Predict the structure.
Amino acid sequence: MSTHPSQIAASAVVERLPVTLPRLDEMKRRGEAIVMVTAYDFPSARAAEAAAVDVVLVGDSGAMTVLGYPSTVGVQLDEMLMLARAVRRGLRTPLLVGDLPFGSYEVCDEQAVATALRFVKEAGCDAVKLEGGGPTSVARAQAIVRAGIPVMGHVGLTPQTATALGGYRAQGRSAEAAARVAADALALQQAGCFSIVFEAIPSDVAALIMERIEVPVIGIGAGPATDGQVLVFHDLLGIREGLGARFVKRYASLQDEMVAGVAAFAADVRTRRYPASEHGYAIDSQELAGFGERFKA
Ligand code: KIV
């Protein structure tokens, strides 16, 4: 029996299914590591899609990586929504999470739900993330979950409130501080968060807390015990000046390549090596002669 060409084509293309919340739970249960990266625009989203990552976060780290703010505090909700819309256009399969910026959810439950709805309706996000596990963040997480929007929590180092935490430093490094991080994580789980980020806490503390957390935990500077790992796109690809935090592993040096590329272009322009004949458009010689006559007339 012969095989129809369309059958061959269909079996050759293994379509990757969109990542869902049950799929993340299943990955945790099976011990499959969950991969999350940040993205802020169409090209970074396309890279995340092509690399088949599981979760993409439009992090408010974009305030610094792509918008040039000195911290995440100043970024506006509309700026975050613009980044999220660009990412949405480049993604098909990873779960898309939008980061609620500082000041867009703390005031009251209604504000938090309204902001989360904008991420879903205007930017096509599947879920939102908010920082902190204190009473305010927990109440907001619960309100958003009750409105039908999945929420990812975030404990440990929470950059939006870094000033109150004493700066960008690891958290949970005393018994009391570790207990606070654990209480925050448990409260967010209780509030209905589908997943929690652990940022910059000792690996041994993370491992202990993991024993009581049933939802998928994504670590960044929290050691190997978490269910998955996240890095900021610009940190892992070296699209920045300086090395970044201790937990960053760099997989490329794209900033150096970008500078070298732009410098080579500048040198070519200045020495008139660019453009060469192959970069130009041709015109039929008779047409050119005709044009010359008209132009000079
Ligand atoms: O904004 C961000 O990039 C984040 C990740 C570091 C988790 O919150």
Remarks:
- The pocket of 3-methyl-2-oxobutanoic acid is lined by residues 38, 57, 59-61, 99, 154, 197, 220, 230, 232 (CB under 6 Å).
- The mean pLDDT is 95.
